[in-house]
Amino acid sequence: MSKKSISIKDIAKLAGVSIATVSRVINRNGKVAPETEKKILQVMEENHYVPNLLAKGFRTQKFTTIGIIVPDISIEFFSKIAKKVQTIFFEKGYATIICNTNEDYKMERQCINMLQAQHVGGIIHIVSVTTEKEKKTSIPTVYIDREPAYGNTKKDMVLIESDNVSGGYQATNEMIKKGCKKIICFCPKDKGSTHIKRWDGYCKAMEETGGKPRLVSLDNVSEVDAYEKAIELFGKDKEIDGVFATTDLIAIGVLKALKELKIKVPSQVKVFGYDNSLLSEIATTPIATVEQPIELMSEKAAEMLEKLMDGERPEESHIVVPVKLVKRKTGK
Amino acid sequence: MSKKSISIKDIAKLAGVSIATVSRVINRNGKVAPETEKKILQVMEENHYVPNLLAKGFRTQKFTTIGIIVPDISIEFFSKIAKKVQTIFFEKGYATIICNTNEDYKMERQCINMLQAQHVGGIIHIVSVTTEKEKKTSIPTVYIDREPAYGNTKKDMVLIESDNVSGGYQATNEMIKKGCKKIICFCPKDKGSTHIKRWDGYCKAMEETGGKPRLVSLDNVSEVDAYEKAIELFGKDKEIDGVFATTDLIAIGVLKALKELKIKVPSQVKVFGYDNSLLSEIATTPIATVEQPIELMSEKAAEMLEKLMDGERPEESHIVVPVKLVKRKTGK
DNA sequence: TTGAAAGCGCTAACAC
DNA sequence: GTGTTAGCGCTTTCAA
């Protein structure tokens, strides 16, 4: 295969110095005579020398690789988190390994093992909905978004999430303010902690205003299921004038059903989604939605992970960042 | 930080054998007495021993990590490629490092350096539009989708792409068959080789049928620019009855403009996008589009990369896979 | 069938 | 300022 890459030893020989001196130049520690340094740098340049990070991490036991585990990289919200986290760590000189679990706990376990074998310094983890109950590694880990199942022992778990309860609450309240009398929540309840929290927020808003929470329970997060259940529901119940969907994709499904039933949005029925995805923005009928501060969440997570990797016990282990309503001006 | 992880030496001591024997068990080579093996396996199990892949790769110079470089992981097409490639290699026991370049050649160069320093065995690379002219590494690399700038020396470059020319051609022809007389192409021409090829396909179809190719040149791939240019164009030219957009997002922008101008799709104007993204599927007016075989492209790429890593010179270094039209039934 | 030992590229402690 | 050297976890000859 491609010729063996050139090592510190080769550089030392070519520059006529010892490997220790070359090492000093690479790491900019210890004293080195200016002309020696210049010479070494020149040789490194000429030979396109790239230090072997494997050997370095191996030697120092300092690992400059970070693992990111997501349930599905092709979902906008997760890919944005991964992108941001990666960018942050890249700037700090870390490599990042992004892993997909496809929402499968077996894949998840394998990912963790693999990351452990690769000796990553830390992990940013968005758990899959089928995640296992026990913590499976001693590698410093920060969870984002979804709450791991073993979360009852909160102390030893760092979680960054947005305020899902508040998101559900605010969205629902906004519709109530706009005059909605009968608001339904479309939610896949067994698809992770976040949906449940959004549902809780919805319930809170409803109950505060004397309304009765109503759930359309979905089997998955596709727009198809939402569409079908919406067709059925709106076919028989003409009083509904608001829908809170716990994610944008669901809102899109509902929207399609409403369009087909010739029910006008938002004049007859208001629809709220969740995530401020590209979808919600560019849908021909744009949908109001709840935006999670992805950048902030990623920054917090990176910050916490760095602390963990430095051996610090963070004072707060559960950070909840605020969400923001995104209203849209729509035609009809 | 987390306690030092347990090494082969610890296992050897606990099992009362030498590290060489443990190594043999791990790698299933060399002869080991059954009971010795059993004992060792038991000790490994009890202590949750995970072999240090860093040390292993370091020692053997066999690297079981693959790098994937994409211009923007938050774009559906790229994230799907990354997901598929990662899944394929995961099953073969490789770890994958996914890197974002944000379409920036400086980031790209850094990514390559980093992957080289991490001693990845191979790279799957979707170049950024600002990519540099020279090949920058001797690591086995397979390009997907976009053609690198130094592609004139095709021999030493492996590229997997879908048939963009044919995609443009087929989409345009489809509209011509449906009776369109004046078809316009919306295309960001300086945004990579793929758009240019789609434009070429469009031109071919137009010229074959005696039509004149017309270009609306976009500054970027956002739907905003497409929207604005469409508003202007359709405001003054009422004869246009077809649009070929070189990506779905652009089609969405055009669609918005048409809706605002109360021009009916597809009865008055037909719109074709590209990529069969979720967007095109669930847009309230679904758009016809061209689908690239993402899975197939990923599989081919993985296959070629494995060959390169094994030191084989592949017989064909430029693979073009076919695309498929996705027509939609629409309301109006 | 098993063990001893060299060495992969690098850093850091120590000697000069 | 610079060189020598041990050793990180592992594989792989070579001997026993």
Automatic annotation (TrEMBL), chains A, B:
Xref: InterPro entries: HTH_LacI (IPR000843), LacI/GalR-like_sensor (IPR046335), Lambda_DNA-bd_dom_sf (IPR010982), Peripla_BP_I (IPR028082)
The HTH lacI-type domain, residue ranges: 6-60
Keywords, ordered alphabetically: DNA-binding, Repressor, Transcription, Transcription regulation
PROSITE patterns: HTH_LACI_1, HTH_LACI_2
MF GO annotations: DNA-binding transcription factor activity; transcription cis-regulatory region binding
Top-level division of the source organism's lineage: Bacteria
This protein's name: LacI family transcriptional regulator
Species of origin: Eubacterium ventriosum
